[in-house]
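Table S4 entry, Major facilitator superfamily (MFS) profile domain-containing protein.
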Amino acid sequence: MTASALQAERHLLLLGSGRHRPLLRMLPPRPRVPLPHRRRSWPRAVRVSPGDGGGAGGFASAVEKRSIPGIVGEEEHGATGEEELEGEVAGALELKWPPWEGLAERYKLIGATSLAFVICNMDKVNLSIAIIPMSHQYGWNSSTAGLVQSSFFWGYALSQLPGGWLAKLFGGRKVLEVGVVTWSLATAIVPVVAGFMPGLVLSRILVGIGEGVSPSAATDLIARSIPLQERSRAVAVVFGGLSFGSVLGLLFAPPIIQNLGWESVFYIFGLLGIVWCLGFESLKVQRFGDKEGILNLGQSSTGSDGLISSAMSSESSHSSLEDLQNSLKDVPWGAFFKSKAVWAMIYAHFCGSWGHYTCLSWLPTFFSEELNLNLTEAAWVSVLPPLGSMIITSIAAPFADNLISNGVDTTKVRKICQTIAFVSPATFMMLSSVDLGLPPWEIVAFLTSGLALSSFALSGLYCTHQDISREYASILLGITNTVGAVPGIVGIALTGFLLDSTHSWSISLFVPSIFFYLTGTAVWLAFASSEPQDFSKSEPES
């Protein structure tokens, strides 16, 4: 073999241990994979000089290598270059698991929070289905059933302000975990105490307390980790989990009850929350092991991507009682209640909650008794409003974000969305409450359409807390949600009382909701605002 033949073959390796013992080995061509993060290595000029050793056509073991100017040579990468290439090719072909591994931290956080909200509403709606066989077993009338269902909202109302304050102090992640554990354990003990009314009411109050801190925790996470242009979608994903949870709860509760008994639905749904906590805790530990920085809440700081991120200081977990009291005093409560925008949010939240909670609790019974549907049919029909809400949410969120991205005033966008959320259900409830001789499927279609369109509130009212103040968003939601929980206490029980007194679904369920929807629209259009509020001089607004 001659030197010219060697130069013609690009894939020869010259391996030798001495001057007179050359060893040539021909290898198949190696496929080259362009790597985006390094300059591509190009072929180098190789000159092989004849040696002074003998042998027919012998070669010297010395090989002179010259890099082409401007091209990265082997001298820069060293002998490990080929090994690095092999490792990177293997890494490129290796499938990532879990599939969300490459997502930004804020998206993982939002996804996990949304899953918690799915379980949240599954544990909320399970009683609206189980209340039917429970009432038959224990001989409850509508007033007693309304009392049992409304007891959830006693705890829900009590935990709103503490939940917002704790989320601001300790971070939404920790508060959310504690909330899920609380409501899951309280759900699981319902069958044990169902025959003892005070115990049953107390268990549902504990469920309400656990679920009551979750919206404030989620709002704190969104306000600190999501930019304005993505906020509507983030809120929609997280709070949209409630609608998905309603769908799953209403779908799975009837067959579970019919096959395993009504007690089993509380055991199974409670177990789901415990499993979520274990998975969320392990995911958090893995994230703490990363070097990339984690989205925790506490002292806020600006991350490299320009978003507001935060890190809980180690001292915050050892805060003394005096520190907690001082942090509570630092909240500008007076400034909140001097703002017309805050009052508009409070009343709008009350009005929206009246229609939402009363329908969520009483529609399965309405479909069962008024439309003569059995338990499974009533549950399946009750799935339609939250299912429609999921569809509308997927439309409303990008609609609002796109308007804001295109320069439309944020306040105007929030007013448009909230008006749709209020006027739509009011209109369809009017059509459902008037005796027009409509067949049952048309009434179902009206109620489904109206309640589904009310999900525009996720791009209206529920974004306004973050819009006007990132720092106090969780506390503001705690304030409005406290008032918004009152319809759960008063409205659900009042609906049962009016139903026993008047035997009219129109008067007991629809008329009060229509009134609050329309008055809420008027107040929102007059006083709502998404302009950042200077509640505290220490709060940076941008």
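The two ends are 74 Å apart (CA to CA).
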